[in-house]
Amino acid sequence: MDKYECPCGYIYDPEEGDYKHGVDAGTAFEDIPDTWVCPVCEAGKENFVKL
After folding, report:
1. N or C: which end of the chain has fewer CB within 10 A?
2. CB under 8 Å to 30, separation ≥6 — which residues?
3. Which residues pair with 49 in a beta bridge?
4. Which helix (H) or strand (E) holds 4?
């Protein structure tokens, strides 16, 4: 699964997920709800770029 980077530098790693914000480990970026935002700067998913 691909990693995605926010403009602030946060990298979403699907192997880790974002447990604090309800995204389980193993969740592909594409499968995260559109309402999810960066846990660091609160940017929306549309601002992330595939690494």
Report:
1. C
2. none
3. 5
4. strand 4-5
User: Cα 32 to chain center, whole Å?
Assistant: 7
**H helix intervals, the chain:** none
Listed residue (9, 47, 13) closest to 29, CA to CA: 13
Chain centre to alpha carbon of residue 6: 8
Q: Cα dihedral angle (31, 35, 38, 40), rounded to 10 degrees?
A: -140
pLDDT at 15: 97
Whole-prediction pTM value? 0.92
- Rounded CA gap, 6 and 29, in Å? 12
Residue type, 41: C
